Amino acid sequence: MSIRVIARQSCLSQLQVKEAMARYPEIDYHLETLPSYGDQHQHISLLDGEAPADMFTRELDDALISGRADIAIHSAKDLPYPLDEKLEVIALFPPFDQSDSLVSRDHQTLAQLPAGSTVGTSSPLRRRELLTLRPDLRIVGIRGCIEERVRQVRDGEIYAAIVATCALKRLGMEADISEVLPFETHPLQGYLAITALRGRDDLKVLFLRDDVLHRQGHVTLAGFGPGDPELLTVKAVNALRRADIIFYDDLIGKAYLDTLKAEKVYVGKRSGQHHAEQDDINRLLLRAAREGREVVRLKGGDPMVFGHAGEEIEYLQSNLVSVSVIPGITTASAMAAATKVSLTHRGISSSVALVNGHAAQPVVPDTDTLVYYMGGSRLTQIGESLLADGWPASTPVLLVHNASLSDEQMLETTVGELSPLTSLDIPTPVIALVGDVARLRHQTASTIRRTLYTGLVCNDPNYIHTPLIEIEAVNYSIPSHERYDYLLFTSRYAVKHWKGSLRGRIVSIGPSTTHALRNVGAEQVEQTEKDDSYGVIDYFSRQPRGRVLIPRSNLALDIIPDGLRSLGFDVETLIIYNNVYPHHVRRVNLANIQRVVFTSPSTIDNFVKTYGDLPSHIEYVTRGSITAFHLQSRQENEKIQNIQKGPGHTG
Ligand code: SAH
After folding, report:
1. Among 16, 217, 331, 621, which one has the highest count of C-beta atoms within 10 angstroms of its own C-beta?
2. What does DSSP say about strands 352-356 and 295-299: parallel, antiparallel, or unpaired?
3. Ligand 1 atom nearest to CA at 299
4. pTM given for the model
């Protein structure tokens, strides 16, 4: 039987095929070559991250998938990650040399290159390494086959180029090497990979002899849980017992680790220099796996929650190491167990977010319960973010230090009191739970009432404040004071937006409007006895007739002007501000709201606009008789609509 091999058209590719197949003189093969997408599009730079991942394999992949070829031979570094799921790498051959070499004019070394010389490379890794040693060089993208790159140096188009040493050797071009560089190179540099359709075990066995893939160790990412070793899963324990080497983090019980025979390597991160260290950890894991060792990467809690697991999985898999993950008990679960506060509870919380509390400005997701990890040094900012997002200051917060361990500590506080807390009050590591579920420690579920307040200014720290109204200034021409005898203010916002003088008799609808008027310097303010429209009309019925000016909003109703006119007053209204639907509305989950406070008819309309209807499980509270009347008529309307829709549409 003859195997059909496919490879790229370059000279180097064909040498790679020869090199790989020379390992198996017993295998009869036929080679077909194709120009790949990358070969045909020489202008695409590999330096700016815009090149498609499969630019060097696409055509070869297609040939395998369509059955035109049995295997493809690639530089392993050129394989896209992830690989097309129909394909797999069936064999991997290590290089005889993994280094990079400098090819330069007059065989100058890197140190000898004149300042500002142009150096060509196609990889961001090499660019970084180059600039570390020689920040004064000018790095340019370079493409084309190896021979082409070397020719550009010979012809003086660029001063120097960085090329893989093994490529130069394969091509018999050792003489062009000016210097072998001390660079850290791509982990797959120089490796050759054979790909084939997934499941072609018949082909795999053919190449088993020199393949290093099947001799590599496997990496298991395992969760240690919150600290108590009894909270380890059986599966994690089995993996730990089998392991040759264990890389572990902070917050992992040393005493338990000592019971395991494997080599133990601490790779915990001190806050501050995460990045470099993550790269180092990645390399350590890869090296151990390549040595054929069974590797366990042990992380606190669950590896997939704030554990950098994604980075390690990607690094290892893209370098062709197999990885599996064993979940662990995440701290949120452990703290719920420790405090006996359920993260979710019917009628109180139907959503939970796991949040990074270490961000400069911790985010506040739109869920009923929030759990902040890594927030020990950011409690102030977390408190500020929550208040700014409209969380009631009275919302309970639970802080737990060392959940599940013998020295576990708990602190109960509130959103409003978070700011002044420090690590003196509770040490790190600490996890913070925010939400009304924490009230369950002291209250029964049926007595917890969550109230939504829809007005502009909320003074009750127990209310969830989500304004359903916004005020916008409008341009208007200021009327002269000779045009009216009475100036009637029916809201403090009218006072705020009034730009005219405060002459004539000034009438206010109620205490907060009066207060606002006093604040802007009005001395003689007459306040109606009752603070609603009927109170105003009643008040005027006892005053001498005259001209009334009412500065007000675009949405104000005509009850007052009509009422005053029927009493014989001469009434003029003037729109001085607009009452609009807010630009940003925070929608809460109404399933867990027991009560809503409406402060004006427009808050009711905007509530329906936001949530679709007026759910019947909610108790509605209104401010003012007009608002109450508006609510009633909307509710009547809704009932009629439900009847019209027919049976089965009652919710
Ligand atoms: N992967 C882990 C989280 C890692 S982030 C998990 O799933 O739990 C580290 C953060 O977890 C710490 O800053 C702290 O907020 C929290 N944490 C971990 N163990 C903890 C414990 N025993 N008690 C309290 N908080 C803990």
Report:
1. 331
2. unpaired
3. 1
4. 0.82
